[in-house]
Amino acid sequence: MADPRERPSPRARLLWSLAAALLWVPLLVAAIVLFVFSPWPTWLHVLLVAVAAVGCAVDVGVVPQWRYRVHRWEISDTAVYTLTGWFDQERRIAPISRIQTVDTERGPLERLLGLATVTVTTASSAGAVRIPALDLAVADAVTARLTEITAAAREDAT
């Protein structure tokens, strides 16, 4: 089966970078504060700050680019298909007949960037299928299309 065709919004890279930075900035600040106020040897401070800086640079600069290259999604008349991950990749196919609900979610960073995540809940023990970081208009169109397709389906999603 071919990979899905659609990508998240190009702003997904910025979203993922900002989310990672919000996690790393407090750690970097703590490492610098320890560097200034701790009695530890200087080499240990330098090592701690260097490791935190490299981790931050990779998580903020590299990971979002990689995730954007991998993440894909597609909706057909029969299924929702996603490919996600950056290191550990996952392919999910949810048959339209199994869809129970379609939700749109927008966190603070997503609202700031005009993005949304569509969550397709199915009658599956594997959990919901998420299509992250879509432009708001695309997310609304996906939600409307899935609602139409599932309403037309004759099978019960149980």
Task: Give keywords.
2 domains; three-stranded antiparallel β-sheet; elongated
Task: Write structural notes for this entry.
By secondary structure, this protein is α+β, with helices and mostly antiparallel strands. The chain has two domains: about 10-70; about 75-150, PH-domain like, CATH 2.30.29. Helices cover about 50% and strands about 25% of the residues. It is built from four helices and six strands, in the order H-H-E-E-E-E-H-E-E-H. A hairpin with a 6-residue loop joins strand 5 (about 115-120) and strand 6. Helix 1 runs antiparallel to helix 2 (about 40-70). The protein is elongated. Pfam families: bPH_2 (PF03703). It comes from Rhodococcus rhodnii LMG 5362. Keywords: Membrane, Transmembrane, Transmembrane helix. This is YdbS-like PH domain-containing protein.
**Dominant shape:** elongated
Overall number of structural domains? 2
Strand percentage: 15-25%
> What does the main sheet amount to?
3 strands, antiparallel
Major beta sheet, strand line-up: 1-2-3
Task: Return the CATH topology of the largest domain.
Answer: PH-domain like
Please write the string of helix (H) and strand (E) elements: HHEEEEHEEH
